[in-house]
Amino acid sequence: MNLSSDSKSAAAPHIGVRNLQRLVPVNVVDLENFAAKAVRCCLQMDKRKPTNLAKLREIFVWVVSDRRMAALHRQFVNQAGPTDVLTFQHGEIFISVETARRHARAFGNSLTRELQLYIVHGLLHLHGFDDRKQADARKMDRVQERILVAATADRYSRSTSIASTLLN
Predict the structure, then answer these.
(1) Rounded CA separation 150/26 (Å)
(2) Coil, strand or helix at 18
(3) Do 9 and 156 meet the contact criterion of CB atoms below 8 Å apart?
(4) Are 33 and 119 in contact (CB under 8 A)?
(5) Based on the structure, what is the number of domains in the chain?
(6) What is the CATH number of the domain that holds 57?
(7) What is the rounded distance in angstroms from the CA atom of residue 36 to the CA atom of residue 41?
(8) What order of strands is seen across the sheet that includes strand 58-64?
(9) 95: domain range?
(10) Strand partners, 93
């Protein structure tokens, strides 16, 4: 199924990606295109109750340095040092590009793939997923991987819906 033909995609919030750091080159246009597909994939999952993702009109993804992320992490989570991604329920996702680069190297991913992973992770938090408990984290990881695959695929078979792919 083509993402643009899905009736829920019309209600998808606008998603913007902005690069606020200068250390690591980032293709903002490609990330924004990916994020738009990923948000539509997330919204195709049935949730029992309305989520922030379904209610938001806009989502902002901010690509920042480790220094800025560490300041945010300390201010809002009261933990020292940078983290990979912070999601705020009003629709902001902050991603540390330096942490993403380190993790990409450690896990054998491209930087783009790692940034895409963080975008999906943030979107899933907005869609009601939590990863504080181990069982919830495993479920979130499985859904995250399926959305990554679906959002990076060029075309979908008309006989297979994204939702069924995500939930199987």
Answers:
(1) 22
(2) strand
(3) no
(4) no
(5) 1
(6) 3.40.390.30
(7) 9
(8) 14-19, 58-64, 92-96, 85-88
(9) 3-167
(10) 61, 87
Write the CA distances from 24 to 106, 111, 122, 134, integer angstroms: 17, 10, 21, 32
Residues 6+ away with beta carbon under 8 Å from 124: 42, 140, 143, 144, 147
> What residues contact residue 27 under an 8 Å CB cut-off, 6+ apart?
112
The tokens describing 50, both together, are 């309305």
pLDDT tens-digit series, residues 31-53 = 999 999 999 999 988 777 888 99
User: Residue type for 69, please?
Assistant: M
Q: Does residue 168 sit in helix, strand or coil?
A: coil
Written as tens digits, the pLDDT of the chain (168 aa) is 233 334 344 478 999 999 999 999 999 999 999 999 999 999 988 777 888 998 999 999 999 999 999 999 999 999 999 999 999 999 999 999 999 999 999 999 999 999 999 999 999 999 999 999 999 999 999 999 999 999 998 644 333 444 444 444
